[in-house]
Amino acid sequence: MLMRLKRFPLSNVRIKPIFLLADSQLLFHEGPDGLFIDRIRRCFDGDIVANEVKASYIGASNGDDPRFYQIFKDAFRQVGVTNCRMIRVEPDVDDTIFLRDSNIFLLSGGDTTLGWRAIKRNGWDRALIQKYQDGAVLMGISAGAIQLGRTYYDKDIYSDPRYLQLIDYIVDAHPIDQWRALKEEVAAAGHGAKGIGIPHGAGLVYNPDGSLEAIRFPCPELFNVKGHVNMRLLDPLEYD
Predict the structure, then answer these.
(1) Please, are residues 216 and 201 in contact by the beta-carbon 8 Å criterion?
(2) CA distances from 13 to 65, 103, 133, 200, 235 (A)
(3) What is residue 1's DSSP assignment?
């Protein structure tokens, strides 16, 4: 079912950070300031109380695997967010209504291409961009983090390689090639292209002003300067 939003005039919308995770570890990670996931809940302080927040899990990249949806529910239950729903690849009317009314959206890990095709087919790409502009929190794990950024080259989707482009970076997560593929994509993208990598157990917060925060472990940040790719490590806010 194609997702369409009913538009209402909004005022004083607070654009929220976008959260990019390599895997599910940070959903249960507790640092000096408490649970990391409580930072996500606190994005709505002053707007919505926890038990009124609606959280949508888009499992398109993992084929709607219920095991990973259960992890999502268990994580948010820690901070009082219990109104959750898995939005299926073939959504029914109730899925579509819940998605339309949600405040938090998580794009799952899995097969990046598989997930992106479903997102496009259902019109969720336009819906997610609009919800972000209306003040929702967007999250991505692994493949979902990649889909929130700029195109990570894939020949199977090259005819429509845009991704959501809400992060002004090409994103990669927990690679097995020491970021070689990310470096190649940043190089191919030309002068001014940027890339960011998220190692196992780490995360990134992309703030509304375009700044990045690494969480838990350092994250490589890449820049294409006149065809030469430079890399630096973005230091985390905390270490274990």
Answers:
(1) yes
(2) 34, 13, 8, 33, 30
(3) -
The answer to whether the beta carbons of residues 15 and 132 sit under 8 Å apart is yes
Tokens describing residue 27: 């959903």
Within 8 A by CB and 6+ apart from 36, the residues are 26, 27, 29, 30, 203, 215, 216
3-state secondary structure of 102: coil
Cβ atoms of 51 and 80 closer than 8 Å: yes
Write the CB contacts of 237 (distance below 8 Å, at least 6 apart in sequence). 213, 214, 215
**In terms of pTM, does the model score above 0.70?**
yes
Q: Give 137's strand partners.
A: 104
CA–CA dist 31, 64 (Å, integer): 30
Across 69-123, the runs of DSSP E, i.e. the strands, are 83-87, 104-107
How many Cα atoms are found within 13 Å in the side-chain-facing hemisphere of 4?
3
Terminal Cα-to-Cα distance of the chain (whole angstroms): 44
Q: For residue 215, give the nearest of 58, 51, 63, 18 by alpha carbon.
A: 18
**pLDDT per position as a tens digit, 45-79:** 988 877 799 999 999 999 999 999 999 999 999 99
- The residue length of the chain stands at 240
